[in-house]
Design brief:
Elements lengths: L3 E5 L4 H12 L3 E8 L19 H12 L3 E5 L1 H17 L6 H20 L4 E3 L4 E4 L2 E4 L8 H4 L4 H5 L1 E2 L7 H10 L21 H9 L4 E4 L5 E5 L23 E6 L4 E5 L6 E10 L10 E6 L6 E9 L2 E10 L7 E6 L2 E12 L15
Length: 367
């Protein structure tokens, strides 16, 4: 069946090959590049593969080679509101956001998809490394490039209008295919930085937005061990940058309290949590489970997978880990899997440690 497909083309190799595959499959494909900054020079420059000033030209050249129409959509206002401002607000609240996840949720698969459907397109095609089988997201065959974690926020309706042509191949195969197709982006480096922070200095970006306000660094008893210049510069599990001096044993950030601008530190053992509460759960791969069931959970992008039991309770996701995990930060996503199938996700809002919470146990309220 021939579909009208809108191919989101970032200017990188993945989205170019995805668009080419969709066109080769016989679909009626139109390429679109998202202009995400009102002042492109405020974003970093250089051929890095996402949101640089050169990317629109690279995407247009790729569309010309593929032989598809190409347009640029101005999404700067939506991107600033839903991604950049959200990023700053989350740090101000003591949480650690994932801006790529929010961009997928709010921009690429909400604003763009809504506009595409309104214009009569059947699906949006992207170069994400994830498989879509029987209406459910599955991990990419290239584990190192798998992006199912940052797409787990998608609803079933959004997934039904999505196309991911690259989930069945490795990144090396994508580059080789781009070269065979004559796409100039075949050797373009991947981007690993936050696109709207031009110099890669996240702490400096947050200081400019939130200001630099000194505050105490305390241990779990409340004893002041040192000072910081802004609580937003820290995340749970962080060890470097505390500057507590050689007389203090190795400490890790346990929590950030924005109200009183306090950073609490402690031992690595004190980082361990075995229960997690998540807000705004999305269940794309199964029905909301009323009773705890066995699955696995991933707690950060490219992080390890933890065996657990999970359920939905009072509109929240409740996860009890089989073994404690460290460095679990509020604001990140908790993504549930059955083998390689995405079941659902939620934004981590609370963590806790309940010694008795193990397989089959009812989780206590996290703090």
């Amino acid at each position: 069946m021939t579909l009208r497909v809108l191919a989101a083309m970032s200017g990188g190799v993945d989205s170019a090959v995805a668009a080419a595959r969709a066109a080769e499959a016989g679909h009626d494909v139109t390429g679109v590049h998202l202009a995400l900054s009102k002042n492109p020079q405020s974003y970093r420059t250089g051929a890095r593969g996402c949101c640089t000033v050169e990317d629109s030209r690279d995407a247009r050249r790729a569309a010309d080679v593929i032989g598809i129409p190409f347009y640029v959509w101005d999404m700067a206002e939506e991107f600033d509101r839903d991604v950049v401002q959200d990023f700053v607000a989350e740090y101000a609240a003591g949480r650690t956001p994932n801006p790529c996840l929010r961009c997928n949720e709010k921009i690429k698969f909400a604003a763009v998809l809504d506009r595409a459907v309104a214009l009569g397109f059947d699906a949006v095609c992207t170069g994400h490394h994830v498989r879509l089988l029987d209406g459910r997201l599955r991990r990419s065959v290239d584990e190192a490039k798998d992006q199912s974690y940052v797409l787990a926020v998608l609803t079933r309706e959004q997934i039904a209008h999505s196309m991911f042509p690259l989930g069945d191949c490795t990144k090396a195969e994508v580059r080789a295919e781009a070269e065979r197709r004559g796409l100039a982006v075949a050797d373009k480096p991947d981007s690993h930085d936050i696109c709207f922070i031009a110099d890669g200095d996240t702490a400096g970006f947050l200081n400019r937005r939130l200001g630099s306000e000194p505050g105490p660094i305390v241990d779990e008893s409340g004893e002041v061990l040192g000072t910081h210049s802004g609580a937003h510069a820290f995340t749970v599990g962080q060890r470097k940058g505390l500057n507590l001096g050689g007389s203090v044993d190795r400490r890790y950030v346990l929590s950030i309290e924005p109200v009183n601008n306090t950073v609490t530190v402690g031992s690595r053992d004190a980082l361990a949590v075995d229960e997690i509460i998540g807000e705004r759960p999305v269940w794309s791969g199964c029905e909301p489970p009323e009773e705890p069931f066995a699955c696995t959970v991933q707690l950060r992008a490219h992080g390890e997978v933890h065996p657990c039991r999970a359920r939905q309770r009072d509109g929240e996701l409740v996860v009890v880990l089989d073994e404690p995990a460290t460095g679990v930060a509020k604001g990140q996503a908790a993504v549930l899997y059955a083998d390689d199938v995405v079941l659902g996700s939620a934004t981590i809002s609370a963590t806790g440690r309940t010694e008795g919470a193990r397989r089959g146990a009812e989780p206590a309220q996290a703090g």
